[in-house]
Design brief:
The complex is a heterodimer. By secondary structure, chain A is an alpha/beta fold. Chain A contains 9 helices and 9 strands. In chain A, the strands form 2 sheets. Chain A has a 7-stranded parallel sheet with strand order 3-2-1-4-5-6-9, with helices on both faces. A two-stranded parallel ribbon of chain A has the order 7-8. The two termini of chain B are 26 Å apart. Classes of the chains: A alpha/beta, B alpha+beta.
Chain lengths: 247, 443
């Protein structure tokens, strides 16, 4: 008999990437928990996952913006989940974020504050236990602020930096922290955008990349390797040149 | 909802269409609400069945398995679930679809809309024979549960109704208990058409039967075939190596056709050579063998994107069924015409059908012949002649394969088409649901 696989808490479990990740982990034999708002409407998805893979699947109410409720959420259960995957994110509309501070704040809080706070809380519990895995889905948009989406990008940059620091802090305490940067993904969030095919991953591809990263103990993962190169080039462009581009 | 160029599996014809992939029933209603909509499963119908007149509704996001009863084998699932998913999930537990077409990459909704048939039609019927109920989103946006017992008219018209009675949301189907993932196969070479038909008659008791037919052979060899029979292997029949895990079959290596083949690659000489080779290989392999389920039911699925071998221009399928009494004469005429035109196809299949069902469902007792051709002017002209031969012999056509037939041919072949059209008009379905095919065929 194999040892039972650790449970996976998926924060943002309703999103396309979150659901795909739930399928990927459940297929690999992990019980999964989908955390999202209006969790009861995920019942059919949970049923689907347990019927397909015979792994447990449940949904739990979760709102990443409800800061005061986060400690209670992360503290639930005798032990923290073995693996926590945070796919919470909100692209927002760049122009709206420029004009409306409330809209910008929502983007910043959804992509940085909320995810960082909840993962920080889980990290604390995992460190005390001396084991656990944290996966944060950040974005290549955080690698350099660009005119087209710098509010979202700045929040993701903050999240990337947070994950990097967390990884650095917990590396010697048995807790693994993984940063996943998907690049373009064909999801509801990007529906209607004209994305170049070679650079666009399916949610299932991102999910597989997350699973592999966990199984192999990776640190920073670009889902499609070409993005590592693209972003390396974008990062080294001298500012004098960069500020005149429209990327 | 964006404009996209889409086509069926044959990549002919191609149309610009408004395509939506809604998430959830509310979005689905909104996407279909403007009228002229048709649901699209995995796009495996060959022609223009799943290209909406005004809106094409992709069902891939309705892909959840909702319930399974392991005592009866009854499965409830959303319409966008693929047969391959059902097999992946349930074969390891000892269940297999009762009826499967020649590809596992079809959706549940697609198989119901086409009332797909498999190699067991002669004894077990079509896909619809194992559907307990369906939920259909109608013209007024309401959902109706239809079964043979309640709303039976909607049920019958929807099986084989090509998505024109509404959008199939969910269905309950029964799965077959199997002891293994293996098929005991028997290959019987038949030197000509008479031998092939005689072999089918002798093999009536076989659960699965279908023949590859060399449509370029002529003269005494006209209709030479390799008849393949199959039975689900019992665990006790397996060699020791497989008996340990009877429901596990090795995964086949997948190949992918990445490029459109140059048009000149498929011509009379190459197809003739291929067919001769395949025939001789069949003679060598005649007799009994044990094959895994994937190779037996889905030989072509191992070559992902095989529709590209016909090149950029795409290809067309021809599939008709001829009633038993005129089948021989009709097949001789169809094969002679094809052979004389030199427009042979790799994938010619001959199969015996059993009893048909109501609605617009395709099968009826007799023989069905399926051929494919590159979508060239010459081949399209040949197809018109094949239509005429089919009509002369009292046959009818499979709409899931059709891409180019004239409305008059359909209506002459099948009086049910006019009743279907009248029913659609009366129920207001004709404006709500329409495909490029339904407009072409006046359905």
């Amino acid at each position: 008999m194999n040892e039972p696989k650790p449970g996976v808490m998926i924060l943002g479990g309703r999103s396309d990437i979150g659901l795909a990740a739930a399928h990927a982990f459940a297929r690999a034999g992990h019980p999964v928990m989908l955390a999202a708002r209006e969790a009861q409407s995920l019942a059919a998805d949970c049923q689907d996952i347990s019927l397909r893979y015979g792994a447990g699947a449940q949904a739990v109410e979760f709102d990443v913006l409800a800061s005061s409720a986060l400690p209670e959420f992360a503290g639930a259960g005798e032990a923290p989940p073995g693996i926590v995957v945070c796919v919470v994110g909100l692209m927002g509309d760049q122009r709206e974020s420029e004009l409306d501070p409330a809209a910008a704040a929502r983007v910043m809080r959804s992509n940085f504050e909320g995810p960082a706070l909840i993962l920080g809380l889980y990290a604390e519990r995992m460190a005390a236990l001396g084991r656990g895995t944290i996966v944060g889905v950040s974005s290549v948009a955080g690698d350099r602020g660009r005119a087209s989406n710098y509010v979202y990008g700045a929040a993701k940059a903050g999240f990337t930096a947070f994950l990097s620091g967390l990884r650095n802090r917990l590396a010697r305490q048995g807790v693994q922290v993984i940063t996943v940067k998907p690049g373009f993904v064909a999801t509801r969030m990007t529906e209607g955008l004209d994305l170049p095919r070679a650079l666009t991953a399916a949610p299932e591809e991102v999910a597989e990349a997350i699973l592999h990263a966990v199984e192999r103990g990776r640190d920073v993962v670009y889902v499609r390797p070409v993005w590592r190169m693209i972003m390396a080039i974008i990062r080294i462009l001298p500012e004098r040149l960069f500020k005149k581009t429209s990327l | 909802m964006g404009m996209q160029e889409i086509s069926g599996w044959g990549r002919f014809p191609r149309r610009f269409a408004r395509v939506a992939a809604p998430h959830g029933e509310a979005a689905l209603r909104a996407a279909a609400g403007g009228g002229g909509a048709v649901a699209r499963g995995n796009g495996r119908a060959y022609g223009d069945s799943a290209i909406g007149s005004a809106a094409t509704i992709e069902m891939r996001r309705f892909n959840r398995i909702l319930a399974f009863d392991s005592s009866s084998g009854r499965l409830v699932a959303e319409a966008g679930v693929l047969l391959s998913d059902i097999i992946d999930v349930f074969l390891p537990r000892g269940w297999f679809p009762y009826v499967t077409p020649g590809t596992k990459f079809v959706t549940l909704g697609g198989a119901i809309a086409a009332d797909a048939h498999g190699k067991n039609h002669h004894c077990e019927g079509s896909f619809g024979a194992f559907v307990d109920w369906i939920d259909v989103l109608g013209a007024d946006g309401s959902v109706t549960r239809a079964s043979p017992a309640s709303n039976s008219r909607l049920f019958e018209w929807t099986l084989g109704g090509m998505g024109l009675t509404g959008i199939i949301l969910r269905a309950a189907i029964r799965l077959r208990p199997v002891e293994s993932a293996w098929i005991s196969q028997k290959t019987l070479p038949a030197a000509n058409l008479d031998a092939a038909l005689a072999a089918f008659e002798t093999a009536r008791e076989a659960t699965y039967s279908a023949a590859w037919i060399d449509c370029l052979a002529s003269g005494d060899s006209l209709g030479r075939s390799l008849l393949m029979l199959g039975e689900h292997a019992r665990a006790a029949d397996l060699p020791p190596a497989q008996r340990a895990a009877p429901l596990q079959a090795p995964l086949r290596r997948k190949r992918r056709v990445l490029w459109n083949a140059p048009s000149a690659l498929l011509n009379r000489c190459t197809v003739k050579a291929f067919n001769a080779l395949y025939w001789r290989q069949g003679l060598r392999r005649a007799g009994e063998s044990l094959v895994d389920w994937d190779s037996f039911f889905y030989p072509l699925d191992a070559v992902l994107g095989w529709n590209r071998i016909y090149g950029r221009r795409g290809f067309v399928q021809f599939q008709c069924v001829l009633p038993t009494q005129s089948a021989r004469a009709g097949l001789v005429a169809l094969l002679s015409e094809t052979s004389a035109a030199g427009q042979g196809s790799f994938l010619a299949v001959l199969k015996q059908f059993g009893r048909g069902r109501g609605g617009l469902s395709f099968p009826m007792p007799g023989y069905t012949l399926a051929l494919d051709f590159p979508a060239t002017v010459r081949a399209l002209a040949l197809l018109d002649r094949l239509d005429a031969i089919t009509l002369e012999h009292g046959g009818r056509f499979y709409l899931a394969k059709d891409a180019r037939m004239a409305a008059a041919s359909l209506h002459r072949s099948d009086p049910r088409a006019a009743r279907f059209q009248a029913m659609r008009r009366k129920e207001g379905l004709d404006t709500a649901f329409a495909s490029a095919q339904s407009e072409r065929l006046l359905l």
